[in-house]
Design goal:
The protein is an alpha/beta fold. The protein contains 14 helices and 12 strands.
Length: 367
């Protein structure tokens, strides 16, 4: 049995922010997830996983709008249906509503929290504003300080867009100093969104951040894309679904129980069914789910098939493709070629049972 990942949207598209680049705001709002749907989800998600570890990912919209008591019920249901498996919870939030009660809940239950932050105030507040159009950076920083005070594990997720893509060093150094070693950079790549990052901007951003990281922060800061790329160099599959050989089995669940192929494909044509009518395990093994995953490779252009960095990007997320080619193609190719010499050295160090950290000393000595 193939397991699956489900991004759960218990508040559907409802959010207390009005981010100017958000692709999800045009979705119809729904009431937040009721108890019957929540119980069905937790029971079915646990039953659908073949291994001893079960991952739950809570996202939005903004999941804190459901209230902390909703998530206390989540924990109780996970304990009821856990079957002795190890349950892990990740919670992605804008942080605006996080208070001491929320932080105590996360700490007591061992939840990993993802905070959305696009850099220093000027860059973050350019897009991430509340419903009245007011800035939110100061509230996000207050949330981070609470998480740190309560010793809650958290990471930072940054959407790379037209503005912050032009300040890569400032963005990286700012995020690095906020108290978590775990960073994710997600490109804004929407075909008709003028705030989307261009392929050249994306490549320049990644190369600039990589230059700092490879000289100062190996083993100290963990940038998802860099770690995943090194993993591929070392013979492992990509950690990132957008760059994996196949997609699929990474679903999005709306508050009413509707299951979609992917968070980027919450459209009627990609609705697999509803967990009240068809169990998640059956939806996961359906022909539609398998076909969606295989389409990524089947639809590659001949140019992609012949590309020397294909194994590192696999044509990128199908959502980013225009006429079969990723909007970010040149940027990814530039970054993968640029980072290749250093990735090769780190891979070889690992094979020799030595630490990739040694690369920093090599670069320092050659400077």
């Amino acid at each position: 049995m193939t397991g699956c990942h489900v991004m759960v949207k218990p508040a559907s598209s409802r959010c207390n922010l009005n981010c100017r680049y958000c692709f999800y705001l045009d979705k119809p709002e729904q009431p937040h997830m009721d108890d019957a749907t929540l119980e069905a989800l937790i029971r079915q998600q646990i039953a659908a996983q073949p291994g001893d570890d079960v991952q739950f990912a809570w996202q939005g919209g903004e999941p804190t709008l459901c209230g902390v008591d909703f998530f206390r019920r989540v924990v109780a249901l996970q304990q009821r249906y856990g079957q002795g498996k190890r349950i892990h919870n990740a919670f992605q939030t804008n942080g605006i509503l996080l208070n001491d009660e929320w932080c105590r809940f996360f700490r007591e239950n061992g939840w990993l929290v993802g905070i959305s932050l696009d850099g220093p105030a000027k860059l973050h507040d350019a897009y991430r504003v509340n419903r009245r159009g007011n800035p939110t950076h100061h509230k996000v920083i207050a949330a981070i300080e609470r998480l740190r005070a309560h010793q809650v594990s958290f990471n930072l997720l940054t959407v790379v867009n037209q503005q912050n893509s032009q300040q890569p060093e400032q963005v990286y150094r700012y995020l690095r100093d906020l108290g978590t070693p775990f960073l994710q950079f997600i490109p804004l790549a929407e075909r008709e969104n003028p705030e989307s990052v261009t392929d050249r901007q994306w490549g320049t951003f990644l190369k600039t951040v990589f230059d700092i990281w490879v000289r100062e922060d190996i083993g100290r800061v963990f940038v998802q894309l860099f770690d995943s790329t090194l993993g591929v160099w070392s013979g492992y599959p990509s950690q990132m679904c957008s760059l994996a050989e196949r997609c699929g089995h990474a679903f999005a669940l709306e508050a009413n129980g509707d299951l979609y192929q992917c968070d980027h494909y919450v459209y009627p044509d990609y609705r697999l069914g509803n967990i009240h009518h068809t169990p998640l395990r059956a939806l996961n093994s359906s022909g539609a789910a398998r076909g969606f995953g295989e389409h990524k490779q089947a639809s590659l252009t001949e140019e992609c098939r012949q590309c020397p960095v294909r194994r590192l990007c696999n044509g990128d997320c199908p959502k980013h493709r225009v006429n079969g080619k990723s909007m970010l193609c040149e940027g990814y190719r530039d970054f993968f070629c640029y980072s290749a010499p250093h990735m090769r050295v780190m891979r070889d160090l690992i094979r020799l049972r030595r630490s990739p950290v040694e690369l920093m000393r090599m670069l320092d000595a050659s400077a």
